[in-house]
Every structure is written in C-alpha cells, then in structure tokens.
Amino acid sequence: MKLHNILIAGMSALALASCSDYLEVDAPSKLDPEYVFSDKTEIDRALNGVYATMLTNNTFGQNLISTFCLNSDVDFKINNNHYNTHNAYQRFDCDPAGGELESAWRELYAGVERANKFIVTLEGADIYAPDEEGDRDKDLTQQMGEAKVLRAIFYHELTWMFGDVPVSWVSTDMATNFIYPIMDRTQMLQYLIDDLKEASEGMKFARDISVGVERVSKEMAWAMIARLALTAGGYSLRPEGGNYGTMKRPENYLSFYQTAREYANKVIESNTHALNKPFYKVFVDECNFVVDNADDPIFEIPFGQNSSGRIGYIHGPKMDASEGSTPHAWGEANSGAQLNALYRYHFDNSDIRRDYINQLISYSNLGVPQVNRGRSNFNGKWSKLWNNTGLGATTQGDTGINYPYMRYTDVLLMFAEADNEINNGPSADAIRALETVRTRAFAQTDPSKISRSELYGSKEDFLKAVLDERKFEFAGENMRWRDLVRNNLYNINTYYNFFRYFGVAEESDGSSEYLRYVSTYDFGHDAGYEDIAFAVYFTDVKKRTVIASEVYPVHQFPNQSVEVVEIVNPLYAINPSEVSGRKDLASLPAEFYSWYNADKGVPADYFLYSLRGYIYCDEDNGLIYINNNGNYESCPEPSSMPTVESLPAVRYILPYPRSVVERSNNMYTNKYGY
C-alpha cells in the first residue's frame, strides 16, 4: 500500500514511498484535526505519520545504523584521508557543516514534532476523555503509549549524537518560543522515563496487537525505559572540565540502574519473548519478511519491500552490478556497514555467531564469488542473499527488510549489567540472564561454554563478560560504541583498536612488538595473534544447498543458484602440506593482511588514519599522536600499559549543524571544541 503525505495537523507533509501495508496515512489536505481525532481509524493513520519518520534513509533506513555508527572493535569504516574533514563521523572527525548532520537533526526533530502534535491533540480530544469510572478507551491508550515511546526514541538518538539538546513537549503551534531551550540530558531522560512508566501501564502486549512487533507494545515500552535508564545512569561526555569535555555520570546514577533492572525484569517476567530460534534464523526471517511476535525481536521498524529501508543492501557480501543489473536474482549490495577485520578473532571457536556475522566473500558484476581481502569484513547478519527467492536482479537499496530496534537479547543483557552494578557483583538472576543468551550461541556446539563461571567472581569481571556478550550479539546495531561510552571504556578501546590494526599490519611485514601488548589486552597473554592467517586457502567455487541444520553452516545461503567460496582457514595459519592432499582446494592462497607500506616503513594509510579524530600515525615520520582536548600529543606506548584514567576522552559528541546555530540567532552554541 502506498504511503501518502503524512497526516499531522499544522505540519508540513513529508512525501514517502510505501511501507508495511498496515501503515496507511491520508494526505493532510483531506481532513482536519477535529475530524481526525474524533475517529479511531483516522487517529491510527495519524499515528502512522509518527512512525513514518523512522523509515527515511536519514534515520533508521540507513544513517542512524551506518553513517553515525562510530568506529569500534566491532563496527568499522576504513578511511585513508590524511586531513581533517567535515563529515568523517565514524573516526570522530567532523565539523558543523556536515550535510548528514543537518539531515539527521531535521528528521529526528520532525519525529519529535509529529509525536508532540499527536500527543497533545489526542490528550485534548473528547474521544480520549475517561468515562464515568475513570477508564479510557484501550485502543486509544495504546496509541498514546506508542506515540510517547516513539518520541522517547527520537530524543534518545538526539542525545547520543549531540549531548544536551533543545527540548519541547508541545508542538510548534502551541509553543511561545520557537527556539527551544537546551535541556540537560539527565533531566530529559528522567522526564521520558517517568512519561513511559505512566504510559506503559495501559498498553498492550505484542501478542495482542494485530501487527505484533511491527508496532510499539507494552514490553517495548518497558524495554525502552530500561535503555533510557542505562543511558541516563552511565557515563557520557559532558562539556566541562576541558576543551573537549569530561566523562562523567550523575551522582544518583544507581537510581537509574535500579530503574533499568526493574523494567528489564518486567519484560523477562512477562514471558512474552524468548530465544527459541537459532541465532541466524532471527535475521534470515527478517530478510524473508517473516515476523515472529514471541521470539527475540521486541520491536521491528517496519520498512516496505522495494520502497524503504536499506537493511540488507548496506549489509551482507558486496554484490556488484553491471549496467544496473546482476546475473542473479538478488541485485546489487554496497555493503557499506562493515565490521572490524579483526573482530572475528575475539569469538570463541564454538560460537555459532562468528561465521554467520563475519562474511569473507564478495561478488563481481558477473556474479563470481571472490575472497574478500579488504581491510574490513562484511556483516552477514542481514543480506539480500538470505532472501529465498531474491529481490530482483535490478534492485539496489530500499529492501523493505525490517530492522530490530529492540531485541529480547538486549533486555536480558541490560538486566545483567544493571543487576551487577546495583549489587556490586552478579546475582544468580544476572548470571541466568547472561547464560540464556549464551545458550543460544553454544547449546548445539559446545554446551560446556554456556557458563563463564571463571568471570563471575567480581563486579568488574562480570561486567566484562556482559559487554563481551553484547559485542558478539549486536554487530551492525549501533550498540558497541555506546556500550563502551556508557561504561567509560571508549578511550582505551579506541586506543587498542588502533594498535591492533597497526600491529597486524606490521606483523605482515615481519614482526610487531605492538601486537604482543594488544594480545595481552585482548586475551590475557601475548600470543593471541601468533598464528593469524596471513595466507588463507579456500575451496573451489561450488553450488550450495538449502540450509538444513539448526546450526548455521558456514557460508551456506538458502538457495542453490548462488556460487560460494568456502575459506578453509579464515582464522589461523595452515601448513601448505596440509592443503596439498585436498583435491577440492584452490591451488593458490589469498594473501590476507598485506597492509604494510614498505616504501614508507609504516602500515598502509588506511590503518594510520581511520581513527584520526582520536589517534593517528603520520606516515611521513612514523610518529603516533593522540588527541588530548584538541591538541595532538605524542601517544603513550602500549608498553606503558595506559589506563582509562591516563588516556584522554574520545570526542564522540557531534556538533549542532551550522544552519541550526545560525537560525537560533546564536542562542545555541557548539561546545566540545567545535
């Protein structure tokens, strides 16, 4: 069904393509607010206008899960530009002129405005008034709750991107001042938490909503409260104490963790979601437009097939096209949302998530599979190739694949993190929540790995176990860097992320002293990268069969018409003599990690400048610099074992767009050194 202009009285309409067939929205010229908010069907269509803001490429269709997914040891965008730029957000290098900044700001505030308009208009409508017993219509109470959760989502994204932001709880036609005041993020998050606590009580569970997890439910409202509370109680970069600011958390942070634990536990005790499917099946189902209202997804953003959302186009193996078409039925994919090339080394060998997420092949415009020798990996969590029939040889973006904004896995791990913080160590309930997630990853491969009892001894050890689990679960979901910020670990993670790439590049040319220190940080010993596979062997191209096992088979797509290369040793070196007797192996290995510039005597520039806003190496003199409050200084050597306290903070906060500052008559000013 085609999505017409959005019906929100008093606002400019936003033209969008179609989305899920239940998302029906009338044009604003047809109806007036008094009529709309007197009819439940029309109110529902107006609510769809609030949802529609989530579907654009400037928000969750692409940019909020790609362009503004900052570099970490999980998600990573390579950049070899030696100089400052205005829009290299992933490497902490931008200025107020970045066009994507203004687009994201505009769209997120459009969502806020639509939500505000819906909320205040419905609150004042006769149809919403309570009856003689004080009860309100259940459908309208649900719709009000949905709008309030959506507003919280928009504001939550804004505060992660920009820190303290302008806030209004009414629509523009009710405002007396169109330059909204800047609100402290903790106060804003507290307001949203209180708002959702009240709104959630009258909402419905996903099983009782006709479209299920494609709309906001009671358990989604509870889960969003937990997420807001962890954000409020965690560390964030505040604009005081230095040119770039200081990492701080509020004095009452434990009260937020208590809220997070309480509301995550409400979701758990509701028994409305579980982790029954294999890990890969959650995302394969999304790629085939299958919605499950009782498994891992709690809220999926409902994109429309061939009309909105680039999930699967910016993920999965890269597939090139020739003159706009591919020789297979799956079409082009640019695979721009990529992973750190060394991420896969951090997984346990028995973890079924590793080989599903980390994809090491791509496709030429002739449809020929190739070993990916790039500086980052493809994220296989979603892919056009997981669709059983193909989306079409001429398709590009706008796949219509849903994006799981909230998963039950996240709720379990939020509960474990909050419980550990409150109790100064994990309770049995926190351990159970963590092991529920690990059961799905290991039960069919090595059940002995489900428990990490060796890491349950202290608060610090258990937090690391929880954050590790989040690292392996949420690739491509814009989580990792936020998890690190919240726990004041982003600076040390980014520091070692640089030296990890740098060390492997040096090792490819001989040996690297850095790599041993990185290994100690990563694995607790200095030999973790000794057997890294600098040359890999792979099977000849072959046709694959349909997925038959509940344990995801490596590189096997659910169709028989796409050829696949299977890499024999994607992780570890292998003796050539072990290969020669294998008839199905290609005779020539692919050279991995040829990342060293012998002429310059340093790694290639991609590994020098991909984190340039925080740490980089000057390829002309080989010196490494770190950004300390806007001043690049000599970087501490890994041999000195730097700590969170000894390293400067990462400036992850983005600047207000220049046009926004100008329109405010300079009532808004950029901080953090912008």
Would you spell out the secondary-structure blueprint of this structure?
Layout: H1 33-36, H2 40-52, E1 87-88, E2 93-94, H3 99-123, H4 138-162, E3 165-166, E4 182-183, H5 185-200, H6 218-233, E5 236-238, E6 246-248, H7 253-270, H8 279-287, E7 297-301, E8 338-340, H9 352-357, E9 358-359, E10 361-363, E11 369-371, E12 376-379, E13 403-407, H10 408-423, H11 428-442, H12 459-473, H13 480-486, H14 490-507, H15 513-523, E14 535-536, E15 542-543, E16 563-564, H16 576-580, E17 590-591, E18 596-597, E19 602-603, H17 606-609, E20 615-617, E21 624-628, E22 631-634, H18 658-663
Antiparallel strand pairs: 1-2, 3-4, 5-6, 7-13, 8-12, 9-12, 10-11, 14-17, 15-16, 18-19, 20-21, 21-22
Helix pairs in contact: 2-3, 2-4, 3-4, 4-5, 4-6, 5-6, 6-7, 6-10, 7-10, 10-11, 10-12, 14-15
